[in-house]
Amino acid sequence: MRMRSSKNKKAWSCFAVAALLSLPVVAGAESEPEDIIKYRQNVMKANGANMGAIAAILQGKVPEYKDRLGDHARGVQAGTKNIPALFPDGSDFGDTEALESVWKDRAGFKKRSDDTSKKADALAKAVAGGDAKAIQARFRELSDSCKACHKDFRKEQQ
Ligand code: HEC
């Protein structure tokens, strides 16, 4: 090592920087299934938390936070974007509530995901429009869409 020319040293450090920069990508490709499962469950928990927050606002329980409706709707938009990507091959075992059907019926799973994603967009749009009745209706449709996917693709909750 001590014999290396400075030119080589430079090339070596460039390589090290390149390796470091590519690290997150490499780590993504080699994620442990249990980390992917934990990650997607956290994304889903965030969906549940945002939906709960929206429900409390719509029920008039926390009028002082009604200005945050849009934030929560955008949170659900983000959390329902391309859900199938959270269920790659090999993440179907371990501590997961996902049913085998997620991997057996990829087309059906994607259809449910796209539907929910569209309904989250519609809710965000309704919130921006400000019509209370429309917001209630879009919220109900979104909530039904979440449930429709869970019914077919998630283990029944006790
Ligand atoms: C395309 C299907 C699909 C859609 C749409 C969907 N989910 Fe899920 N959800 C799942 C699956 C599958 C699981 C189980 C994941 C696991 O355990 O690996 C899950 C898990 C959950 C969990 C439990 C997370 C935990 O581990 O504690 C919550 C809460 C949840 N979803 C809320 C929602 C809400 C709210 C929506 C709608 C805004 C939604 N989901 C939309 C498929 C879906």
From TrEMBL:
One GO CC term, this protein: periplasmic space
Keywords assigned: Electron transport, Heme, Iron, Metal-binding, Signal, Transport
Protein name: Cytochrome C
Entry's Gene Ontology BP terms: electron transport chain
Matching InterPro entries: Cyt_c/b562, Cyt_c_II, Cyt_c_prime
Organism: Sulfurifustis variabilis
Binding site for heme c: 146, 149-150
Signal peptide: 1-29
PTM section of the record: Binds 1 heme group per subunit.
Iron among keywords: yes
Pfam families linked: Cytochrom_C_2
GO MF assignments: electron transfer activity; heme binding; iron ion binding
